[in-house]
Amino acid sequence: xxxxxxxxxxxxxxxxxxxxxxxxxxxxxxxxxxxxxxxxxxxxxxxxxxxxxxxxxxxxxxxxxxxxxxxxxxxxxxxxxxxxxxxxxxxxxxxxxxxxxxxxxxxxxxxxxxxxxxxxxxxxxxxxxxxxxxxxxxxxxxxxxxxxxxxxxxxxxxxxxxxxxxxxxxxxxxxxxxxxxxxxxxxxxxxxxxxxxxxxxxxxxxxxxxxxxxxxxxxxxxxxxxxxxxxxxxxxxxxxxxx
Length: 243
What we know:
By secondary structure, the protein is mainly β. The chain contains one helix and 20 strands. The radius of gyration is 27 Å and the shape is elongated.
């Protein structure tokens, strides 16, 4: 009969019974492995993949996540101030943080804005800015379009609340897409909201066509609520406040 020899082995800080010829390595440093400082405890910072004790100031999650994407963390809000030159790519808001984006001149934010994972999103577009689509996430999204801004689609299909002010002439030229949440659209500028508003799945959709020639394309009102009797106004192509 063959007998298997058993050895008592203690390697690192782990002890146990192992078969002869076996080897166990327990590196305690693995407990301090990290991807970001949020993985660390006891005031440690994530440096080169490990949580390191340091007297240096701890970088808060907002600053760490926001600055990596080109923004500035101000009181736990990630803020972007974009010119045509300073934000050449898509403006990407960090996940789970409130995001504020100012597109300050013509051509700013010209390749798009992505707020799909932000805790909330507030966007202000100057005349000639925001010529590409704006993608909102599942939280609240507020967009102000001044001058001939917001030429691309405004996509609020996932937002629980979408508020859009199309203040300038010819602003919001493409379609505004609402989802299941509340959609509040003010078409204040002359010939604004030319692309129309898709609200067929919205729980409530208020579209006010106040500018001269605004709402060149009709708003598609919520099917379950917004009939003409309930507040859809076919004379100005908008959904009324009773929807």
